[in-house]
Structures are given as structure tokens and as C-alpha cells.
């Protein structure tokens, strides 16, 4: 999520309504427009604080699992808000626990071999794949970083940018976009 939101997450472990709107606006710049802002704005301040606090608390106490099941309750807590689906909830949680909660970007979903499906089940599959790949790659990789790498590779392909040569070592390496699968 945008840097302006990190303060609320780090200092208070919850988002204000304005911070949630900032996250939704940021998310809309990274993917397909979906007309949900009216629903997001209809949430009252206390509901936003309560749902995000609950989701973040659950995320902080969850243990990452390769099947993605660790993400179920935190995502459900935040998606209780009107206009907030798994992708928006994942943006909030990626800022708090990047090792366990990758942002559900359309391009990263496709590069991981997943369909563009915006359900809890789809996010759990995606989070599991990103967590598993990060474990295979080892430090400094985390689920969110793997997702960012897939998003970046998709952007390079989409915009026909020149490819960087593969690096040696475990911190970079070849591009997953050739196979279309991250895991």
C-alpha cells in the first residue's frame, strides 16, 4: 500500500476511513477499475477501525502456511467492510505481514497460474503459492516480494521493456514469466 498508510498500520495497528480510501485509490491505480468507492465511503469510521484492527491482529498472530489457510480469518475480518474484497484486504495485510500476505494483483495472479478470480478461495490459493515460493527461494524473499516480482515481470512483458540478464545467486535469478507459473 501507499507509504502514507504505513504510519497508521505501524503506529495504531488499524486504519482510519481516510487511510482505507487511500489504499483503495492506490489499488485502483494498479489494476482494473472497479466502481466500489461509493461502498467504501459508506463505511463509518468505527467500522473501518474495528474491522482493520481485527484483521491486522489476526494476521500478526497467524503462522504462514503453504496452503494459504493462515489468511482466511484476517481477510474475512477486513472484507466485512462494504466495498472491500480480498484484493483490497490483501493490500492492507501486505503492509503488516509481507512474509505471509502478498498483495493480490491481477498480473501476479496470472503469472502464478491462477485465474483472475476475486474470492477468498482464490486469495488463499495465491497466498499459499507465494508463501511456498518464498520459502523455496529463502531470505530475503517473502510472499509479498515474490508477488511484486511477478507483477514487475508482467509489466515488463506488457510494455515490451528490455529484459535484464539473469543474475547469479539466490536473490534474483531468471524470470518466472517464461513459464507463466511461479510455483
TrEMBL record:
<feature type="region of interest" description="Disordered">
    <location>
        <begin position="160"/>
        <end position="183"/>
    </location>
</feature>
<protein>
    <recommendedName>
        <fullName>HhH-GPD domain-containing protein</fullName>
    </recommendedName>
</protein>
Amino acid at each position: 500500500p501507499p507509504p502514507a498508510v504505513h504510519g497508521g498500520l505501524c503506529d495504531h495497528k488499524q486504519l482510519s476511513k481516510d487511510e482505507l480510501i487511500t489504499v483503495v485509490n492506490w489499488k485502483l491505480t494498479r489494476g482494473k477499475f472497479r466502481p466500489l468507492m461509493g461502498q467504501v465511503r459508506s463505511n463509518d469510521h468505527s467500522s473501518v477501525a474495528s474491522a482493520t484492527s481485527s484483521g491486522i491482529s489476526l494476521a500478526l498472530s497467524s503462522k504462514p502456511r503453504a496452503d494459504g489457510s493462515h489468511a482466511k480469518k484476517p481477510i474475512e475480518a477486513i472484507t466485512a467492510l462494504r466495498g472491500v474484497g480480498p484484493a483490497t484486504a490483501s493490500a492492507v495485510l501486505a503492509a503488516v505481514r509481507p512474509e505471509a500476505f502478498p498483495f493480490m494483483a491481477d498480473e501476479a495472479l496470472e503469472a502464478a497460474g491462477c485465474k483472475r478470480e476475486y474470492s477468498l478461495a482464490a486469495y488463499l490459493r495465491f497466498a499459499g503459492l507465494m508463501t511456498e515460493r518464498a520459502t523455496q527461494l529463502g531470505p530475503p524473499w517473502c510472499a509479498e516480494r515474490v508477488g511484486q516480482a511477478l507483477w514487475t515481470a508482467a509489466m515488463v512483458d506488457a510494455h515490451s521493456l528490455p529484459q535484464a540478464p539473469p543474475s547469479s545467486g539466490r536473490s534474483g535469478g531468471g524470470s518466472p514469466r517464461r513459464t507463466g507459473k511461479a510455483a
